[in-house]
């Protein structure tokens, strides 16, 4: 990765490729292995079904369907496909038929063996059910005593041999039904047959394997005794509706035993055949495991090559294919060398040369594992235009820092830093990359971002002097309570009457000097601690905000210089800087000047910066608010006048310059004689119809794109008016928006304080015995740790992250970054190799 590609997108060229027909497949395949070019579709008007290599694409798709079937069968068997070894090249076209034949043969074998296995399992399941039905002891039917009427529930189902039904023969229906259907089956049989039957249901002791799903299931066996042909027909219809398995049931005990022995023998033989079938199935699946990983990768690559070839046009002689592709200028020699090597066997060398372009090229910014997360933050706002200044290098510093300003705490930052450091140290482990959890993948992808966010939070935590909301005394305090007590003559009675004491910095020896680094820890004991931090963080937010916005305006200078638009330096950038720095930069100057020039002795008479800033716009003066320096009013009035004067320059400067430049170009192109009128008219038509990128965008095209589209005055003035209003009002609203740094920093500190006071302080101040106190502190610390991670690290961290994201997108990047481009998406096999 070059420095140019980091701070600005690389130069991208439009390349025309002449590929010999015999070597076109090999050339495109090698380009896919490199992943350096993005093909343009030269057949956009041709449907996908009319392209040259549509038959080959369909064959690859049919193979992919077969591979999907084989993959599902492997997963169904509980096997795991191994990862392909090494980088597999796209197979030559002549190998496609061999791969298809081998794959179809394996798929046919697998379907046959799987079908035989299903049939054998179904037969074995039927035999096992039949064995269970014959083996269950349902007992002989018993005739109940005839007590009530013939239609009573207690009337006998089988009458005496001397009754009117003595000529009827008792028949049996035996079978098995699913347990959840047994109760409904028994109830329906009783109602439909009016009780002229005896039904016995028993649950099987052993579970049988379901032939379809392979899961163990239980069955209920039943034995129904009845007489009468009509009753038997009803019973058979009902059992068929409930999908019962019905088996023949002989009346004689000996006959049933003989049938049971035959069933057991058949079941044993069937199990042996099924075992042989499953062993053969495992052999077929083993061959599938060897073929499938490499075959899937190769066919996906082959399909990708044919899809790329479908984007090429055919020469008039049909001897070569013509392709156009975007390619980084630095990679063009590599592409040319690869094409020569790939086409050497064809006898005619492939050619790649640069051609002029009129369209805006794609943006190429190379990243690594460290910069990819920061580039992702910028690209989420919008991909930069071609060779526009890339905000990502500056975001590497500014984003974690602004996050840390809102999240400043040594303890919380250290926890985040250690969590990110653990992911960074283990980033090469396969388990880290193979994790499928979406939340984990998000954290792991931004591990370096989290690392810097935690590190900067530790730094700002030392500035705020906060570690889990507690102040630490690293250096001696700059305030001396003993000196104040000695020189003020504080007596015991005075101390008893005044619970709050005031340290006066005007007394010699009370204030020894500023704290070496960060906030003095004595402020954590002061009652005006919050007021002091509010003033400090609010002014710090304004200073950081104005500096950040001014830096964004300065970065726009590099865009204007690079694209050769020097007029925008004077007509846009200079007025913007005058307006921003003349008003809000002056506010920063007042804050810093007051910090440096107002001592503790004069703090009581210190003027109000807010009143001075308001009077600056009103051109007025407050008698009670003294000046900070001599000549302050003149400077303020001059700055307001300059800022107001910069607005019409910003509004009208660029449109008037562009229209004047366009008029001068027309005068220069006007023909001298009548014989050149047709030629001049043709030039004007060409210039006016040339594909431009709009007057509001930078001309960042290729070397051949030097002409501008026709400018419409109303559109130019409208666009510039929108830009002027947005910038002037944005300077006010964006400066106020940076106060979120103060607000979220205050919220984070107060939440930390509340969590410490409500959990840890209550546990530490319980006043119990040492052993009991130690035991009680275990759940107290566990609750403190869980709440710290859940609320302060996760929720507060996410809130600070989103606010830092907004400050970069809205307040910083809109000063110089348009984000209206598109990425270079090279033709690559990287996804197939993974």
Automatic annotation (TrEMBL):
Pfam families given in the database record: V_ATPase_I
A single cellular component GO annotation: vacuolar proton-transporting V-type ATPase, V0 domain
Gene Ontology terms, MF aspect: ATPase binding; proton-transporting ATPase activity, rotational mechanism
Coiled-coil annotated residue ranges, if any: 103-130
InterPro entries attached to this UniProt entry: V-ATPase_116kDa_su, V-type_ATPase_116kDa_su_euka
Bilayer topology annotation: Multi-pass membrane protein
GO biological process, one term: vacuolar acidification
Parts of the chain that traverse the membrane: 401-426, 447-464, 538-558, 578-597, 604-622, 634-659, 741-760, 780-805
Keyword Repressor in annotation: no
Record keywords, A-Z: Coiled coil, Hydrogen ion transport, Ion transport, Membrane, Transmembrane, Transmembrane helix, Transport
Location(s) in or outside the cell: Membrane
PANTHER family: V-TYPE PROTON ATPASE 116 KDA SUBUNIT A 3 (PTHR11629:SF21), VACUOLAR PROTON ATPASES (PTHR11629)
Function: Essential component of the vacuolar proton pump (V-ATPase), a multimeric enzyme that catalyzes the translocation of protons across the membranes. Required for assembly and activity of the V-ATPase.
Family under the similarity heading: Belongs to the V-ATPase 116 kDa subunit family.
Designated name of the protein: V-type proton ATPase subunit a
Species in which this protein is naturally found: Heterocephalus glaber (Naked mole rat)
Gene, per the UniProt record: Tcirg1
């Amino acid at each position: 990765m070059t420095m140019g590609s980091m701070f600005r997108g690389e130069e991208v060229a439009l390349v025309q490729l002449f590929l010999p027909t015999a070597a076109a497949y090999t050339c495109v395949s090698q380009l896919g292995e490199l992943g350096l070019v993005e093909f343009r579709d030269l057949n956009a008007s041709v449907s996908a079904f009319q392209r040259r290599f549509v038959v080959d694409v369909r064959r690859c798709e049919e193979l992919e369907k077969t591979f999907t079937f084989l993959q599902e069968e492997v997963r169904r068997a509980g096997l795991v496909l191994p990862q392909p070894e090494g980088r597999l090249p796209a197979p030559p076209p002549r190998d496609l038929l061999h791969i298809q034949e081998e794959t179809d043969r394996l798929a046919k074998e697998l379907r046959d063996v799987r079908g035989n296995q299903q049939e054998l399992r179904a037969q074995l399941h039927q035999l096992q059910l039949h064995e269970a039905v014959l083996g269950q002891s349902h007992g002989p039917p018993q005739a109940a005593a005839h007590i009530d009427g013939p239609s009573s529930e207690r009337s006998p189902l089988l009458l005496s041999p001397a009754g009117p039904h003595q000529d009827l023969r008792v028949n049996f229906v035996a079978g098995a039904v699913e347990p959840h259907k047994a109760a409904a089956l028994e109830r329906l049989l009783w109602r439909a047959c009016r009780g002229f039957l005896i039904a016995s249901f028993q649950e099987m002791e052993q579970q049988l394997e379901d032939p379809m799903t392979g899961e163990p299931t239980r069955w209920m066996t039943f034995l129904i005794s009845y007489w009468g042909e009509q009753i038997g027909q009803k019973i058979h219809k009902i059992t068929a509706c409930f999908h019962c398995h019905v088996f023949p049931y002989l009346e004689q005990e000996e006959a049933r035993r003989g049938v049971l022995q035959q069933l057991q023998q058949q079941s044993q033989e069937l199990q042996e055949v099924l075992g042989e079938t499953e062993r053969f199935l495992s052999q077929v699946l083993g061959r599938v495991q060897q073929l499938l990983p490499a075959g899937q990768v190769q066919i996906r690559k082959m399909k990708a090559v044919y899809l790329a070839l479908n984007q090429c046009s055919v020469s008039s002689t049909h001897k070569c294919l013509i392709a156009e592709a975007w390619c980084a200028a630095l990679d063009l020699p590599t592409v040319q060398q690869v094409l020569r090597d790939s086409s050497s066997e064809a006898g005619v060398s492939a050619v790649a040369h640069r051609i002029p372009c009129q369209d805006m090229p794609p943006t190429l910014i190379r990243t690594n594992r460290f910069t990819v997360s920061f580039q992702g933050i910028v690209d989420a706002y919008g991909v930069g235009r071609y060779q526009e200044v890339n905000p990502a290098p500056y975001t590497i510093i500014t984003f974690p820092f602004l996050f840390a300003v809102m999240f400043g705490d040594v303890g919380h930052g250290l926890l985040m830093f250690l969590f990110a450091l653990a992911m960074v140290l283990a980033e090469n482990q396969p388990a880290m990359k193979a994790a499928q959890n979406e939340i984990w993948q998000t954290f792991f992808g931004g591990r370096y971002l989290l690392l810097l966010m935690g590190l900067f939070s530790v730094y700002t935590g030392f500035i705020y002097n906060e570690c889990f909301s507690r102040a630490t005394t690293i250096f001696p305090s700059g305030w001396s309570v003993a000196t104040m007590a000695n020189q003020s003559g504080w007596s015991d009675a005075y101390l008893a009457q005044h619970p709050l004491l005031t340290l006066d910095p005007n007394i010699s020896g009370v204030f020894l000097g500023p704290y070496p680094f960060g906030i003095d820890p004595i402020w954590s004991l002061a009652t005006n601690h919050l007021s002091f931090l509010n003033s400090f963080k609010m002014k710090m937010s304004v200073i950081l905000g104005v500096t950040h916005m001014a830096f964004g305006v300065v970065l726009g200078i590099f865009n204007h210089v690079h694209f050769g638009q020097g007029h925008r330096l004077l007509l846009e950038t200079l007025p913007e800087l005058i307006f921003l720095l003349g008003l809000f930069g002056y506010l920063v100057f007042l804050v810093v000047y007051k910090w440096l020039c107002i001592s503790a002795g004069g703090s009581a008479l210190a003027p109000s910066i807010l009143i001075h800033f308001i009077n600056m716009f009103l051109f007025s003066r407050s008698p009670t608010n003294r000046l900070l320096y001599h000549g302050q009013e003149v400077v303020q009035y001059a700055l307001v006048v300059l800022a107001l004067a910069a607005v019409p320059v910003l509004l009208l400067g660029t449109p008037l310059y562009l229209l004047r430049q366009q008029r001068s170009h027309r005068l220069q192109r006007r023909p001298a004689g009548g014989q050149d009128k047709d030629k001049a008219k043709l030039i004007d038509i060409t210039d006016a119809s040339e594909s431009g990128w709009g007057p509001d965008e930078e001309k960042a095209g290729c070397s051949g794109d030097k002409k501008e589209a026709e400018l419409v005055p109303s559109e130019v003035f409208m666009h510039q008016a929108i830009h002027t209003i947005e910038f002037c009002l944005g300077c006010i609203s964006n400066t106020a928006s940076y106060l979120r740094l103060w607000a979220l920093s205050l919220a984070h500190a107060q939440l930390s304080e509340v969590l410490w006071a409500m959990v840890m302080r209550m546990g530490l101040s319980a006043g119990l015995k040492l052993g009991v106190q130690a035991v009680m502190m275990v759940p107290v610390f566990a609750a403190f740790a869980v709440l710290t991670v859940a609320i302060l690290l996760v929720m507060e961290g996410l809130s600070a992250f989103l606010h830092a994201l907004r400050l970069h997108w809205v307040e910083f990047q809109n000063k110089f970054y348009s984000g209206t481009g598109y990425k270079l998406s090279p033709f690559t096999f990287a996804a197939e190799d993974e």
